[in-house]
Amino acid sequence: MGLFQSKGKIYKPVAEINLRAESDEPYTHANVKAPRVAGFLVKIFAWILESWILGPTVLHILKKDNLVHKLVSFAEIPESPMFTATHTIEDLREQEVTCIDPNLTPSERVKEALDCLPASLETTLETGFKRWTIQDFSRAYNSGETTPFKVAKRFLAALENSSVPHLQMSFFINYDAKEILKQATESSLRYEKGTPISVLDGVLVAVKDEIDCLPYPTTGGTKWLHKARPCTDDAACVKKLRSCGAILVGKTNMHELGAGTSGINPHYGPARNPYNINRVSGGSSSGSAASVCAGLCPVALGVDGGGSVRMPAALCGVVGFKPTTGRFPSSGVLPLNWTVGMAGILAGTVEDVLIIYAAIANDISAFQPKSLLPEFNIPQLKSSHLLTNIKFAKYGKWFNDSSADIRSCCNDALQLLSKRYGWKTVDVTIPEIEEMRLAHYVTIGSECTSSLAPQLEKINYGELGWDVRVALQVYGSFSSREYLNAQRIRNRQMQFHKEIFKRADVIVTPTTGVTAYPLQRDAFSTGELDYINGAALIRFSIAGNFLGLPAVTVLAGYDTEGMPIGLQFIGKPWSEATLLHLAFAIQAMFIHSYRKPEVFYDLLKTE
């Protein structure tokens, strides 16, 4: 390929780049040159890429046309590689927080979190719609209004209803009615005796099928991975929730191997968006986001390697939260992309995110020596004292690279925050956004194929979805030079963001560049390749994964077709408490106008 080698970009040293608003650094729009492909066409494309004769040439052309060669492969980058997004402990001096003792048990931590929450919202909302929270379920159980067993029965009936021909929501890959009712019976007995373990006792929690949770296999959205890697124990994050009495209701649907953004799984069906069942739910934690949106459970676990928690959360109108890399234990999570992926939380409200976060975070065993354990702050959401002097960093060209509805909605939300709380917006330039997206793509793809290499050598490729077969061919084409250059770009971005965080508390963006787009039936059996929509969905997510930064998305409104729009805050390392404060402020402004999804199940309905 030497004759066809593209000329690579020559990067200036980081120190020479102006990060202020008046910077002349160019903003490069995603240069995606690939048509949407599904059905028989995606099969042909997969066969071509898998061909020893045609495959390398086509892959070379794709990478050249989509700027991978120019911005990553053949680029000249002065910085050294940075292989992991780890962060040192810093004195953040967060406002209005409670510091949690890391030696407390998960249930004790949950109690500490409850003490930080405001009284529940009892007023009637303008739309007449309210999402039931963890505390709502706990109160109903304690009062005898209902029991975990009755709620579990309603959950199972709702799941059955969601599978009728005119819905086919495909929320779950695997669930076991007997196992669910067994857990619910045990929880109901504890309430009868007046000895619930915690506020989570009897609360339904769903788990993405990328996280180990007994007695279910962990498929990663495939038909084969669980055969090569049996699930023998709960993941560490699941163990903590189980110890609090939560009812683990099964494994949610996901984009196969997390290798896509639509949530269309050819093996288990497309996880549909409850706001419009003919729209995507987003990926790859599609089933988790859709399940929470539809009221099947107040919270769910997901995994976020490239916006895979925040993106579907935004498209489904729920809260999506990804902590700092290292804040959650990784044991029992499929190691598909170990330097960019980690578990995250999807919930109907910020309060419920906080409760789950308190139960899971800062596993002492994950920080050795213990001197590396970061301070564990949780926000005092019930505090009457507002956070003062909050500054949002906003890169206008990037922020505005979104649909008109999203741009208008998110700008309006920022203006409301400024008017109500006096918080300021600081205009900045964050250089090389598209370069970072491509570097992350090289990284996540390389790590995925490396992680799965022993299994991929043995499996029948006929067991893979056609879209994933294409993705794996692209992933496997990345060279060591491309991977190293991607890590050099990671180093540059880490330095850029550190400088920006000296001027602001958080970076604010829309969560996605587009809202949920239509499902097309030709993709149901093969999956689809839609890199234009994919790039738009992932546009604002990358820094959270590539740089290991905490991030949260919260509902800020709806587009003209009634689909949810998310606003995202990206924080300094270990600043989760501040992010949850800000997300709660957005929630408080808009919760009265939340709209009921087209598909919604009320599990606390009165008899």
TrEMBL record:
Q: Which SUPFAM superfamilies match?
A: Amidase signature (AS) enzymes
The Amidase domain covers 173-580
One Pfam entry for this protein is: Amidase
Enumerate the transmembrane spans.
none
- Give the signal peptide range: none
> Could you identify this protein by its name?
Amidase domain-containing protein
Per the UniProt record, the source organism is Dendrobium thyrsiflorum
